[in-house]
Specification:
The protein has 185 residues and is of the alpha/beta class. It is 28% helix and 18% strand. The protein contains five helices and six strands; from the N terminus they run E-H-E-E-H-H-E-H-E-E-H. Strands 1, 2, 3, 4, 5 and 6 form a six-stranded mixed β-sheet that branches. The chain is globular and about 55 Å long. One of its GO terms (molecular function) is ribosomal small subunit binding. This is GTPase Era, mitochondrial. Pfam families: MMR_HSR1. Belongs to the TRAFAC class TrmE-Era-EngA-EngB-Septin-like GTPase superfamily. Era GTPase family.
């Protein structure tokens, strides 16, 4: 711990495929979260830690906010519905990621994002249309992680997510969301 540590928990939220994991990876300076062109690459909330000077930013990367009907219709796992909402509850700041290249969404916010913002009016929010930094928003507080910690994911989780990312890229006609990793005995 430094003499005067500061910490900020940042929930990165937005519609599916808005670029939340890409932004988180860029802020961390390395690839920690899986990224692909397909929606719902991020399956549950993951944590990344950015430490700079006496400040620690805890990035909470979330699945895209989606509706109950879409989860049921496409038989998606419950974490896609629950994790973004639970993550926002623990955040000091929300970063709302909007993909301005999406011609359907560039002029408005997604309804699920608006609902989330309205249910958490006391949590400050930043609209991100491009790269943003958070150091100036951190407040005085003890760090929660060692300065060399980068994520709460195990090496196996990172590998599994990166393999999923590559499968999503290499199998354009398939949706291999239920791919599981098996370790030989």
């Amino acid at each position: 711990q430094p003499a005067h540590p500061k910490v900020l928990k940042v929930a990165v939220i937005g519609a599916p495929n808005a670029g939340k994991s890409t932004l988180s990876n860029q802020l961390l300076g390395r690839k920690v979260f899986a990224v692909s062109r397909k929606v719902h690459t991020t399956r549950n909330r993951a944590l990344g830690v950015l430490t700079e000077g006496d400040t620690q930013i805890i990035l909470l990367d979330t699945p895209g906010l989606t509706t109950v009907s879409k989860v049921k219709r496409h038989q998606l796992e419950k974490s896609l519905l629950v994790d973004p909402w639970n993550t926002v509850k623990e955040a000091d700041l929300m970063v709302v990621m909007v993909d301005v290249s999406d011609r359907w969404m560039c002029g408005r916010l997604d309804m699920e994002v608006l609902k989330c913002l309205s249910q958490h009016p006391d949590t400050p929010a930043i609209l991100v249309l491009n790269k943003t930094y958070f150091i100036s928003k951190a407040k005085t507080g003890s760090w929660e992680y060692h300065s060399e910690v980068l994520t709460d994911q195990s090496p196996e989780d990172i590998c599994t997510n990166l393999v999923r990312e590559k499968l999503l890229e290499c199998l354009p006609q398939e949706v291999p969301y239920s791919v599981t990793q098996v370790t030989p005995v």
